């Protein structure tokens, strides 16, 4: 029998600073991972950064900029 405190809950909000992986942002982004990738390629979603060959992260500040105006968001040049 699992106790109530042992259940995993979703985060309430995304921190303003720092970096987040896909599992951290997927609860806040209303699209699939592939749709997000397509938007990244076209510059309509923040670009991911790679910490290692397999560890991709997004800037929380850029994601909050996207949240503020997802239709008109354009990623800056890298």
Which characteristics define this entry?
globular; alpha+beta; 3-stranded antiparallel β-sheet; 3 helices; 78 residues
Describe this structure in words.
By secondary structure, this protein is α+β, with helices and mostly antiparallel strands. 29% of the residues lie in helices and 10% in strands. The protein is built from three helices and three strands, in the order βααββα. Strand 2 (49-50) and strand 3 (56-59) form a beta hairpin. The radius of gyration is 14 Å and the shape is globular.
In short, what is this structure?
This protein has three helices and three strands. It is of the alpha+beta class and 78 residues long.
Which overall shape is indicated by the principal axes computed on the Cα atoms? Answer: globular
Uncertain stretches of 5 or more adjacent residues: none
Task: Report the count of strand segments.
Answer: 3
Rg on CA atoms, Å? 14 Å
Largest sheet: 3 strands, antiparallel
Mean pLDDT: 88
Q: Percent helix among the residues? A: 25-40%
Strand content: 5-15%
SSE order: EHHEEH
List the helices and strands and how they pair.
Layout (H helix, E strand, L loop, with lengths): L18 E2 L1 H4 L7 H10 L6 E2 L5 E4 H9 L10
Antiparallel strand pairs: 1-3, 2-3
